[in-house]
Amino acid sequence: MRKLVRILTLVLPACCLLPTAYCFVQVGQVPVEHDAKAKAILDDLSKTTKAYKTISAEYEMLIVNKDKKQVDKQTGKIQVKGNKFKLEIPGNLIVCDGKTVWTHNKDAQEVTIKTFEPNSEDGLDPTKIFTIYETGFKYKFDKEEKTNNVTYNVISLFPTIKPEKKKFHTMKLYIEKTKKQVHEIKMMMKDGGMQTYTIKSMKPNAELTDASFVFDTKGFKPDQIVDERDGK
């Protein structure tokens, strides 16, 4: 679980927490570079993302060290509906109904229950993988890049909120030009390594019921459930 928290909190606290409707913080509320082309692309990306009622996606995370050697590689699935989410990564399932977070450690067969606190230091809000760019960064347009007949706009982002506390110095967004969707996020780490998050598939507006964002603890013994909510 500690490894999971380290992975998720490395990226997500770098941006504002937007748990309901992917609200857009207008460029100009934070210091930014005056890059009109990058701003137009990001505005279109935000508009497209906000229009989705739900998101269902599969992604891959790759971590390499400063010597370009692979340190970790994981695949995951995420579903998002408003402020609700479900995240599946190897060995763990995290489910949130907007108020409560259930973390099922499959190896230990243990369920941890917490109150969802997206504004806390350790608040886990995986929905931000799609809107991480919206605040706290200055930015510039890098280039257009074509891979497998798909054209991507590449934009570099640089943290402006307590950058000295970030473990990365630059984040690169690869945005599919036609669909206006984030395809890849590359984080250049201060230690010389790199983390890459690649969206392998993305299905917006999939039919997701509210019940799918509630974890059923039936079938677990009392000693397999750790309830850390206040008053529990």
What is the helix content? 10-25%
Poorly predicted segments: 1-33
Overall radius of gyration: 18 Å
* CATH-defined architecture: Clam
Helix vs. strand class: mainly beta
- In the CATH hierarchy, what is the superfamily? Lipoprotein localisation LolA/LolB/LppX
CATH third-tier fold name = outer membrane lipoprotein receptor (LolB), chain A
CATH class: Mainly Beta
The shape is globular
**Termini distance?**
21 Å
Major sheet details: 12 strands, mixed
> How large a portion of the residues is in β-strands, by DSSP E?
35-45%
Number of separate structural domains? 1
Order of helices and strands: HHEEEEEEEEEEEE
- Trace the largest sheet across and list its strands: 7-8-9-10-11-1-2-3-4-5-6-12
Q: Averaged pLDDT, please?
A: 82
Strand segment count: 12
Q: How many distinct helices?
A: 2
**Which assembly state applies to the chains in this document?**
single chain
